[in-house]
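[job 0412] stage=fold_complex status=start
inputs:
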Amino acid sequence: MQRLSLAALGLCLSLPTFAAEGMWQPGQLPELEQSLVDAGLKVDPEKLTDLTKYPMNAVVGLGFCTASFVSPMGLVVTNHHCAYSAIQYNSSAEKNLLNDGFLATKLGEELPADPTQRIYVTTEIRDVSEQIRAGLDQLDDGNAIHQQVDARSKALVAECEKGGGVRCDVYVIHGGMQFNLIRQMEIRDVRLVYAPAQAIGKFGGDVDNWIWPRHTGDFAYLRAYVGPDGKPADHSSANVPYRPDSYLKVNKDGVQPGDYVMVAGYPGRTNRYRLGTEVADAIDWAYPSYMQLFKQQLELIASSSAGRPDAALKYAATVASLNNGVKNFQGNLDGFGKLDVVAEKRRLESAMEAWLQANPDAAPGYAEQRLQLDQVLAQQRAQRERDLLWGRLWRSGIFSAAGDLYRLSLEQTKPDAQREYGYQQRDEVRIEGRLKRLDRRYDAQVDRALVADLLRRYLALDASQRVAELDAWLGRGEGVEVNLEAKLDVLYGATKLGNSEQRLGWFGAKSSQIRGADDSALQMAVALMPAVLRLESESERVKGLEYQLRPAFMRGLIAYKRSLGKPVYPDANNSLRVSYGIVEGYSPRDAVNHAPQTRLQGIVEKHTGVDPFDATQRQLAAISERRFGSYVDPELGSVPVNFLASLDITGGNSGSPALNAKAELVGLAFDGNYESMSSGWLFNQRLTRTILVDVRYMLWVMDAVDGAHRLLKEMRIKPQFANKQ
Amino acid sequence: MQRLSLAALGLCLSLPTFAAEGMWQPGQLPELEQSLVDAGLKVDPEKLTDLTKYPMNAVVGLGFCTASFVSPMGLVVTNHHCAYSAIQYNSSAEKNLLNDGFLATKLGEELPADPTQRIYVTTEIRDVSEQIRAGLDQLDDGNAIHQQVDARSKALVAECEKGGGVRCDVYVIHGGMQFNLIRQMEIRDVRLVYAPAQAIGKFGGDVDNWIWPRHTGDFAYLRAYVGPDGKPADHSSANVPYRPDSYLKVNKDGVQPGDYVMVAGYPGRTNRYRLGTEVADAIDWAYPSYMQLFKQQLELIASSSAGRPDAALKYAATVASLNNGVKNFQGNLDGFGKLDVVAEKRRLESAMEAWLQANPDAAPGYAEQRLQLDQVLAQQRAQRERDLLWGRLWRSGIFSAAGDLYRLSLEQTKPDAQREYGYQQRDEVRIEGRLKRLDRRYDAQVDRALVADLLRRYLALDASQRVAELDAWLGRGEGVEVNLEAKLDVLYGATKLGNSEQRLGWFGAKSSQIRGADDSALQMAVALMPAVLRLESESERVKGLEYQLRPAFMRGLIAYKRSLGKPVYPDANNSLRVSYGIVEGYSPRDAVNHAPQTRLQGIVEKHTGVDPFDATQRQLAAISERRFGSYVDPELGSVPVNFLASLDITGGNSGSPALNAKAELVGLAFDGNYESMSSGWLFNQRLTRTILVDVRYMLWVMDAVDGAHRLLKEMRIKPQFANKQ
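[job 0412] stage=fold_complex status=done
writing structure:
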């Protein structure tokens, strides 16, 4: 009983004595030793800094998610939603693996994932700041700075990737204060081993997305395969399971409320060091504007596809993404409302600047560069409506297809290293895929409705935000009324890009051919391309200046924080990070306490029989018969399903292994609570929680529901239930 | 810390060892002594049985709510929503007491409530079962039984009320097994003393209705006045405050989680002893049907008043009531969904009937009478659609006005004692009020839309549910299509009852005058009255049979429960009852725990500035400056606002004093949680909670926010804050 009451007290009254905030670079952890020990860590923090040793070398990236090795045979565990495309890729109307789940009963049955699926094993992180920044401080032209950073980065990457089998990338730290070159082994033969039914793996679906209490079995297993020589290879039946240098030890006892827990993974992006003015812009303008636009687009998609189920189906993914955006923006705004982020940012900036005035040597030139940064950002903000509409316009079906085709034709004339990011040789497969996919995601009538709305919004902008080429294309002029509908009649009436064969026929065409094309959409792309390039260059200029000016701010901040004895972790940038905290619930509002663990009974409570709350009969039977085995938590009287921990994660961390105080696997991170949505901007210790799937639930599903005995044994877990049928 | 952790454990894991279920007759309490003591009661239960002694003689009724004396000068505390009409009655556009609140700074400033406002002090409960039931068992005609019960009840009431100043009523217990004659002193001069601003008294409004966590200051003060001779009198400036025999002692320390608490009050109606078949009917038919109808009526009101704000305003109260109904029905269905009430009822009935078969002497004739009851109820169910529509029809503006006028004219020809309930002399003021009020609640177009819908539904009914008179009035016949719109053109076009003066002109008219009236609505009432009377007689026949048959069921149940050592409390019937339990939260679903107390900070969290979450600046300032005084709960670090207790209450209990283990006032009951909505049918110990306002919040608002020092002193509470301005 002691345990639960402590947890309950934790929820209501006390805060942990360490700061759960921080996505730490592994190398920073020794600096945090005292805090780690206070939180409960039982291994030497030094052990966590070596990327080539346990446990860090078992933590791998999927590009958009995190995963980890859990057996000597390259078995990889990640979230169900991270393995989603691998499952979907192997599904058909007759054999719906999403619905039914999938279990390979032997190696030979493991299914190849989508050929673009990768597993990345980080093998080296190298500081290349000196190479990249050399002489940059002498430049003051933003475009020149950007060009230098770009060219040097590409050169470093090319050098690093020589020999093949690896992927290298340059990661920007502290806005350009530091650059890291990261090398990752790139495993190209990835196979689907096991996924529970969607009714487990995605239980609660979008309804429960970002929501606690949660009951989602968000886990699945992949396996890394390599050539017989042990090197990364394209998929082949001759390939063999990869033998990782180490793999995570699974601890089937999980963790209890109050226990230490950490996750290692690849968080994508945070904005923790943005200025108060930038946060204010996000709150007052960006989120509300995007939300209003997205809602309008949702209405337009609904009305323009009404009565046409085929068209509606094509926009299902777009609708899901817009809805997700709306929920995210709303969540951010709700979070901001609770926290008064701007005030907090400003307090921090004031305190820091007061300190810097008293300690001018800590960050020389700070004040002047801060002023410049403010000016650059203000210039950028002056064009924000234009940039929003321009960006969304080029995401529409017709603009994106025509734009991609013409842009690629222009970039293909350059040496590969000088091509624009996203249009290099290695990107061509992806561009072709995008052009193919349009078939299933484009309807002229819906696209036109969306484009018409964006252009109408554009036409209403202030003169200062006009784009000359777009005005010219629209036929705007002194005293001339734009006839938008007539323009769109031509754009959609005189293009053949809606036809898949025609569209793909232009893939790889020369720019001169496209310029001569008798196609309204391609002509539009040709007419607007100068503006695309100009706006891109404008934006690169700003980026270049930011490489100069943000580090100045960060130097000031780091010096100030150091004076307070606080190390500074960099914003997330897709590189390997560690976050640590404890298992604990929270109080979302007065008199409501969220316990840190959910139970199997909660699945029964939520079960309606209707997707996304349609638990399988096999699972319901196992619950009602209380076939819990040793996965039961005696205090809960049930198998723990999901749990909460005070950890600092963000998108990209999905699938991250949760490790206990001894660095053993006890679960997987897969979501944040609703209150954490705004944590990209400001981490709130009292409210931000990570949602994880408990290892005991994973093992219980594998054992009592799905009979995945082969995998249990591979992970050294002794099955407790007879294999099904 | 101990306390909170115990409470948290209580929430999650343990149940109290006593049953919180039960609205006990005061006389039953000694039977429950052990359970009361286990729960924590510190006074002799015998003390609670004497209606003429502390504390029971301090608990009074308002007719629709409960209240209590809290000073020797007749000061009465109740809910804000129970004093609502008294506040509204004294409000005007210029002086909006609802918005601003009201505080009389001396006796002379206290404002007379609506003249119909009463305070009832129960002075005697007498068992009159023998008088009423004498010889009834020999009758088998339902109408004859009903007539006997009705006539004998009226005679007893008339006899009891002789001498004036008292209100007597006969209360049916266990469906007619027992009848009690209850005498109450009827205080007719009631004045408004103090009400906080609506932003406190109704904070959260309809949004938070039935919702926990709650932050509503649902309290207000009235005062009972009597003539200089100490006897009840109509309002007069010569009247003086009533000096009650006793009044509740206010304990300003409130109660803590886990503490004993009880409420005494006048719960209106429950259905705890309905049969499984009746509950199934409610779940499968009644709630869904009413909900569907109410939603349709809401849509019709909206569409038929669109663009006409005056009409919309007239239906504001109707809309609120329909919405409240929908929420209630939905809450009931949600509750049923959680509990499987029907199965539980059937289990109980089976167990009981098995026991009765083994113990046939316990309730002789049970089986046969149970069969008869089932038959009677089945007959009634066969007409349920008709009865639903017929009932709603006579609640419409035009039907109700015309029906009241003609019915009254018919009843006025009889001796008062023989008149139908609701049309006796004492009811005439109320009928006139209803006719007057129609001005503010009637719009012909909206009324017609509602009536048309009801009649259309009626026309679709099966032949077995037809009403001949209504068919005739509608012009239905073999092969004749009813022209409903034409009929309604006449009904609404050729009546003057929509006009207030004309309508009231018919009040008190002779039935022959009405029969000769050249008014389409009155003619309709005349045409349909035979059906009204026939259906009424049918329903009285059923009631009469139920007086016979329900007691048979109850005798069986009581005998069975007694065999298990469980006393049986009667269903609520507006008479004085006691419920006891402890202060405790609950878990509405897996991993969510509701703490049993809310805090002032929760008001700040909910505050949006927009009604119903528009806390006053005075209050917000007092909170932010932490002017808590000794009303603070040190464990909470705040003043407790509302609290939860495992108590069994229902409508009518609003305003009931919450008493601690020593029978001192520690709060007021004012609502149930959402999960308790279905508790009218089945009490669920794990989920059903009463929501109460904490006495510390009441006193804090009076002291720190509103400066109600006079009243605090009258209740022997020493003010701690300087009086405002």
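[job 0412] summary: The domain at 1-118+188-268+571-725 of chain A is CATH 2.40.10.120 (Thrombin, subunit H).
[job 0412] exit 0
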